[in-house]
Structure formats: structure tokens, C-alpha cells
């Protein structure tokens, strides 16, 4: 089916789309068109494949198949679709944490702060077995109390993940109970991600925000380019960077952590256009993890004779040093082999200051600006790219609207890379992009502060907790809203869930697969508001443009009529 | 005349044709997320029979429904040859419902008219054929069997 929509607002990527059409390279956009129309039952959450008596649907228009074979009705089917996504998303964070722990325990790298590292390793054990004793002591009492009341206080892998996954297997339950199980798993994921950040900092050392380059121009013409795709063990990444430095090989990343001290990896492009760097001809080797990596890279890489190494295979090289050396050797060989392949590297490059954390952004100054009315609120921009939208357009337009309206924006992950490509993380453009009061606040926070603060892989919510503490308010009473304009991964669904569980109203696009059931949608709004003071907003209107979405969020921050939110005015 | 061929070897019984006919044609709001909650339910004009046969109006050359209709509500479009229900004059007598040998005419639950597939007269292309993931529903010329040489 045809799907006529502008593919991307990134002109560097657009330039390669015509080339791809000529060479008949299939990109994500072509495959999306081939998939249309996507199954209406699955899109609205009214389907289930959890057992072999299915697959079942709940047909909205016919009476004969309203219930699944086992008796699940449309409300349960819809909320369980959400639970499935959240469980998978939680495992993403647990996988990242356990990779790092394994790397540290193998002794391959000497931790900068041995005492703290040991403490955190013990805490990880405690998290897995009983939900983290130390973490519960550190978080504000109000959260612990409210989570205990609703029953969603994390209690360890067995109670949080195994039991939650059993909800999909059957049992007599209702929509609210299943939703609370989803929240329980997501909180477990949050704690895992906090521990991962702390462990990384204590092992590799603290690092201040640093300037890195983004976009296709970072690829070098005259030296081998080794690209890191997706997530895999930070220890391996550091070893690769060490070896690559010795051999003068340029290492860059796509959808991967930009900082592993003392190295930083320029970001070549964002999630939606991850197949494009291969088309420049300048990539000599790709080492790919699992999360965020498109399997289509294998075919496209063949066209340009680029070897792809998977970092996560069953029988992988146990000796990390040797693995890293092998990879760097292959990159060098590949560069020599590929001398004749023409390079077509666009010169677009942008600078971005990334890597802020709750320790180096002064929450008190932010609170002062909020109470004086200088800035009107804080918006979290998160998520990556989704082919259903024009790549980067939603994030960019919404960010620009917020910056013009005195809203402090913070971002993380893929959203940061997207915004960086358009100069929103470059301190040089701060005065141009932000309204005056916002620019004043930002310039008071430090020397090279960009329009939007990137908080890397964690620390964002801790910064907001600091803001709440300084302002002597509960987090759910602060004017903060989270926004996922172009989300697509399960880890982002989990992130949205835990953001709501700690009291920040969240807007998620595209709409979550719960729209088939009115009860499930009400559970995400009314029920969540009762329990946490915030809603997970599922917007079902399809054809609304980015500016309207931004206005929706702004209205929610101001607390105008019709938008129930927890961002009450600061005073 | 073009007809909708149903290929039972390709139909997987996925119900997408029913879902999208119901959303695009039968519903008020024409959007999936709204249509599924409408009361009364929109009635799709295509029926997935058995495991693998998506059946809709065959637009018969000699249509029993047109013969059975007492006041000319069921009529044939002279240009395209398609049979459709002219809703303003329908008196809900259900003679067509009884007469159809395929059983694809049904009373509407909300308004007193008979509903039947009209091959998406007001759209560019029949929606069921457009969304069918396996191309089990295809728009092709009706083969004139009488002209086949022996």
C-alpha cells in the first residue's frame, strides 16, 4: 500500500534516499510501505498469541469472536499487550546492568573507585533478590509509601518479572491489577538503570559534559571508520577504542552511549536512518549489539562490502582483549580491501555538548527561575525515531516550540542525538533557539550550556527529584511533563511507565496498543491519576501535527481546562 | 465488468477485510480507534466464511435481490453494472435478505435499511481488496465462460 509522507527532515539523509532507490536498496521506509495496512487487531491490542489455542482476536464488529478461546475479553487483551511490551522493556535494562556487572567482575578493567564499586555490586545483588534495600532508603519516603500502598514496590526478579509474566499465562484478574503489575516491572527496570549509571561512573570515573560531533560528516575519508551499533558491553567498547587509538582507526557510534571515559564516540546518525551511514561507502567495519540494531544492516552491508560482527553470539570470544584486537585488525584489513569503493561523505557535522548529570546541573537555580516565573516548566524529551512519522520532525518541532515558550527541556538517549543534529545541543545557537528568560537561566548554569540539556543514560529523574526537593514540593506537584514524540522500542514504553509511576504525566506517540479497550485507556488515565497523580496519555487522533502536540503539552503544563495534569502552577 | 475474485487458497481468515470495511465504510467516524467503540456496532459488508473464504456481494448479472425488491430500492448502476441499495426508499421489508442465495445482505442494526456491499462505489478501489495481505481478494474482469471455446 502506498504511504506518501516526507521521509525525513534531515537533509543529509534525504540526499541518500534517491541513491537508495536507484540502487534498489531497501530501507526501513520501503519495508514499512510493504507492511501496510498493519493488522488492525494487533494495533489496537485486541489480539493474543500467548498459547497454541490461538492466535485469538477480539473482533469489534462481530459477536462470534469477542472473547479469546481461554476467555480473555477485550479489556484484558489490551492491557496484556501493554504488559508484554513493558516486560520486554524491563529486560533491556536488566541486560545492560548485568553486562556491566559481568564485565567489572571479570577484572578486565580497574575501577576508579574500588570501594564504591564493591558497594554497588552488592546493591545489584540486593536488587535482584529483594528489590534493592539501599535504593529504597535513598528515594523520597512519599514514593515508597505510595508504591507500598498500591502494591508495586519492587521486590526482586522473582516477584517483579516472573510473577508479572505469569499474568499473561492466565488467571482471573482485572485491568487495574494487570496494569499495576506492569508498573511494578517498570520500576524494577528504573532501579536497574540507576544502578547501571552509578556503576559506570564509579568504574570509569566521573566525567563532565563534553563536546562531541554528530551527523554523517564525522566519518573520515582517509582513515578506517569503525562503527559501534546499538548496545553491548561497555568494557568491550572501551577495549575496542583503546586498540583503535593505537592503530589510528576512527571509532564512531550509532544508537550507542557516547561516553565511555576516557573515550567519546561521535554519533553518526539517529535510529531511523541507521542504514544510511553504510551508503556513504566510508564505513569499514560494524560491530553490532542487539538492541536498536536493524537486521537489515546485513544485506545493505554486503552491497558496500562492509563486514558486520555481532558482539552477542552464543560462542563468543571470552577473552575481551583478543576480541577487541581481532575486531580492530579486521577493520584495518577491511579498509585496505575497500580502497576502490568510492566514498560519498556529506560534509554536514554539528557539535553537541552531552553528558550532563544531576551532580553538575544546579537544581536550586532552576527552582528559583521556576518560582519567579522566568521559566514555565520542564519537559523531558525522550524516545528515538519511528518510521510512522517524518524522521526527527516531531521531536524537532516540539522542542523548538518549547524553547520559544520558556520551557526548560531535558533529553536523553536517541532523542538527544536527533536534537543534536539540528544544533539544539550546541551552545553557540543557544541565544537563537531559546527565549530570553530561558537563555538567561541556561547561561547561569555554567560555561558551555546548550539549549537542551542531555542527561545521557540516567540521572534525569534524579535531577528532577533534586528540583522537587529544593522547591520543597512533591514531584507530582511540579510543572514537569514527559514527552515521547517518536517512540518505538519496548525500552521506551518501560521508561514511560516508570516516569508516570513517579508522578510525571507522560505523552506517548504513537498511541500504545491499548486503544481497543475503553477500560484500559481509562485505567491509564483516571486510575493512574488517582494512584500516582499523573496520567499516561494515549492520544488517538491520528492526523495531528507536531505543533498541535506541543500545544497540548504546553496546555498541560499550564494546567488549563480540560487537561488534567499534575503540573500545577509553581506558586 | 470487473468482479472481486475470492481465492480460497490464499485467504488466511485474518479478518482484516471485515475490520477495514467496517471502519472505512460502515462506521460513522471512519477512523479505526473510534470505529471500534461505536454503538451500535458498524456492520462490515464482507463476511469471512469458514476458515478461508471472504464473501461479499457478487453483483450477479441476474440479481435475485433486484427481482425481490418491491419498490426498486435495489438497483443496478447502468455504467458499472454494480448492484447497490438506494437507501432513501428502502422500506426494510427484508425480501432481499431472504432472496440472496449467498446470504450477504443483512439488516442494519441501527437504521431501517438493508446493508450490502456496493464495491465501494464512492471510493477509488474496493477497500477489502486493498487491505488483503495475501491478495486473496482481487479485482479482475469477469471471465465470460460462454465465450470459452470447446
Brief account:
Chain A is of the alpha/beta class and 571 residues long.
Commentary on this structure:
Chain A is of the alpha/beta class and 571 residues long. Chain A has three domains: 66-204, Substrate Binding Domain Of Dnak, Chain:A, Domain 2 (Up-down Bundle); 216-337, Rossmann fold (3-Layer(aba) Sandwich); 350-558, 3-Layer(aba) Sandwich (Rossmann fold), CATH 3.40.50. Chain A has helices at residues 11-22, 28-35, 40-43, 74-105, 114-130, 133-138, 141-150, 157-166, 175-204, 234-246, 276-279, 297-303, 320-337, 363-371, 393-404, 413-421, 430-433, 436-444, 460-470, 490-501, 518-532, 546-558, and strands spanning 47-48, 56-57, 210-214, 225-229, 250-254, 259-260, 263-264, 285-288, 308-310, 350-354, 377-381, 407-411, 452-454, 480-484, 506-508, 536-538. In chain A, the strands form five sheets. In chain A, strands 13-12-11-14-15-16 form a six-stranded parallel beta sheet, with helices on both faces. In chain A, helix 8 runs antiparallel to helix 9 (175-204). Chain B is an alpha+beta fold and 150 residues long. Chain B folds into two domains: 1-56 and 117-140, 2-Layer Sandwich (Alpha-Beta Plaits), CATH 3.30.70; 60-116, Alpha-Beta Plaits (2-Layer Sandwich), CATH 3.30.70.20. In chain B, 20% of the residues lie in helices and 17% in strands. Chain B is globular. The mean pLDDT of chain B is 89. The chains are: A alpha/beta (571), B alpha+beta (150). At the A-B interface, helix 3 of A face helix 1 and helix 2 of B.
Amino acid at each position: 500500500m502506498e504511504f506518501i509522507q516526507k521521509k525525513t527532515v534531515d537533509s543529509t539523509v534525504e540526499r541518500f534516499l534517491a541513491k537508495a532507490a536507484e540502487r534498489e536498496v531497501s530501507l526501513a521506509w520501503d519495508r514499512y510501505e510493504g507492511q501496510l495496512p498493519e493488522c488492525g487487531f494487533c494495533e489496537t491490542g485486541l489480539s493474543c498469541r500467548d498459547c497454541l489455542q490461538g492466535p485469538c482476536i477480539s473482533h469489534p464488529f462481530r459477536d462470534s469472536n469477542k472473547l479469546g478461546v481461554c476467555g480473555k475479553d477485550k479489556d484484558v487483551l489490551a492491557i496484556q499487550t501493554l504488559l508484554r511490551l513493558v516486560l520486554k522493556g524491563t529486560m533491556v535494562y536488566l541486560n545492560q546492568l548485568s553486562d556491566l556487572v559481568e564485565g567489572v567482575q571479570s577484572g578486565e578493567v580497574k575501577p576508579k573507585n574500588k570501594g564504591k564499586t564493591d558497594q554497588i555490586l552488592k546493591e545489584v545483588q540486593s536488587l535482584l533478590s529483594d528489590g534493592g534495600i539501599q535504593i529504597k532508603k535513598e528515594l523520597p519516603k512519599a514514593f515508597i509509601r505510595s508504591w507500598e500502598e498500591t502494591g508495586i514496590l519492587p521486590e526482586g526478579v522473582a516477584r517483579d518479572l516472573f510473577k508479572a509474566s505469569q499474568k499473561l499465562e492466565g488467571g482471573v484478574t482485572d485491568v487495574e491489577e494487570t496494569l499495576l503489575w506492569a508498573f511494578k516491572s517498570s520500576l524494577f527496570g528504573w532501579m536497574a538503570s540507576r544502578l547501571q549509571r552509578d556503576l559506570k561512573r564509579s568504574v570509569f570515573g566521573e566525567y563532565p559534559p563534553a563536546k562531541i560531533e554528530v551527523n554523517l560528516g564525522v566519518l573520515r575519508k582517509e582513515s578506517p571508520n569503525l562503527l559501534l551499533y546499538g548496545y553491548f558491553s561497555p568494557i568491550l567498547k572501551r577495549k575496542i577504542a583503546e586498540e583503535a587509538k593505537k592503530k589510528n582507526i576512527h571509532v564512531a557510534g550509532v544508537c550507542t552511549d557516547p561516553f565511555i571515559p576516557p573515550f567519546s564516540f561521535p554519533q553518526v546518525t539517529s535510529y531511523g536512518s541507521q542504514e544510511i551511514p553504510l551508503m556513504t561507502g566510508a564505513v569499514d567495519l560494524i560491530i553490532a549489539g542487539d538492541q536498536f540494531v536493524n537486521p537489515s544492516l546485513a544485506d545493505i552491508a554486503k552491497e558496500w562490502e562492509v563486514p558486520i560482527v555481532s558482539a552477542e553470539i552464543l560462542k563468543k570470544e571470552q577473552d575481551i582483549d583478543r576480541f577487541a584486537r581481532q575486531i580492530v585488525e579486521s577493520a584495518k584489513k577491511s579498509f585496505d580491501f575497500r580502497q576502490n569503493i568510492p566514498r560519498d561523505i556529506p560534509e554536514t557535522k554539528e557539535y553537541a555538548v552531552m553528558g550532563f548529570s544531576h551532580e553538575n546541573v544546579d537544581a536550586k537555580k532552576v527552582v528559583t527561575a521556576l518560582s519567579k516565573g522566568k521559566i514555565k516548566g520542564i519537559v523531558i524529551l525522550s524516545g528515538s525515531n519511528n518510521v510512522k512519522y517524518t524522521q526527527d520532525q516531531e521531536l524537532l518541532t516540539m522542542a523548538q516550540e518549547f524553547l520559544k515558550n520558556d520551557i526548560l527541556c531535558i533529553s536523553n538517549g536517541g532523542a538527544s542525538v536527533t536534537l543534536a543534529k539540528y544544533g539544539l545541543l550546541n551552545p553557540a545557537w543557544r541565544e537563537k533557539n531559546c527565549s530570553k528568560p530561558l537563555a538567561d537561566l541556561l547561561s547561569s548554569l555554567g560555561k558551555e550550556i546548550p539549549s537542551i540539556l542531555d542527561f545521557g543514560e540516567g540521572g534525569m529523574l534524579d535531577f528532577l527529584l533534586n528540583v522537587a526537593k529544593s522547591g520543597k514540593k512533591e514531584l507530582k506537584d511540579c510543572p514537569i511533563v514527559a514527552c515521547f514524540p517518536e517512540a518505538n522500542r519496548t525500552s521506551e514504553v518501560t521508561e514511560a511507565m516508570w516516569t508516570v509511576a513517579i508522578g510525571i504525566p507522560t505523552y506517548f506517540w504513537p498511541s500504545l496498543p491499548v486503544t481497543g479497550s475503553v477500560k484500559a485507556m481509562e485505567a491509564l488515565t483516571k486510575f493512574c491519576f488517582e494512584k500516582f497523580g499523573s496520567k499516561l496519555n494515549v492520544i488517538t487522533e491520528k492526523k495531528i501535527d507536531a505543533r498541535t502536540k506541543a500545544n497540548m503539552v504546553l496546555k498541560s503544563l499550564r494546567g488549563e481546562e480540560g487537561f488534567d495534569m499534575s503540573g500545577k502552577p509553581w506558586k | 465488468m470487473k468482479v472481486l475474485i475470492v481465492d480460497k487458497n490464499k485467504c488466511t481468515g485474518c479478518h482484516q477485510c471485515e475490520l477495514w470495511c467496517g471502519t472505512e465504510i460502515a462506521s460513522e467516524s471512519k477512523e479505526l480507534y473510534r470505529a471500534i467503540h461505536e454503538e451500535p456496532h458498524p456492520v462490515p459488508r464482507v463476511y469471512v466464511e469458514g476458515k478461508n473464504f471472504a464473501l461479499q456481494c457478487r453483483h450477479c448479472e441476474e440479481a435475485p435481490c433486484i427481482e425481490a425488491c418491491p419498490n426498486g430500492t435495489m438497483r443496478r448502476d447502468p455504467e458499472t453494472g454494480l448492484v447497490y441499495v438506494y437507501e432513501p426508499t428502502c422500506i426494510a421489508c427484508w425480501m432481499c435478505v431472504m432472496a440472496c442465495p449467498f446470504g450477504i445482505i443483512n439488516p442494519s442494526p441501527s437504521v431501517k435499511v438493508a446493508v450490502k456491499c456496493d464495491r465501494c462505489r464512492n471510493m477509488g478501489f474496493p477497500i477489502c481488496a486493498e487491505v488483503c495481505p495475501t491478495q486473496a481478494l482481487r479485482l479482475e474482469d469477469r471471465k465470460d465462460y460462454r465465450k470459452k471455446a470447446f
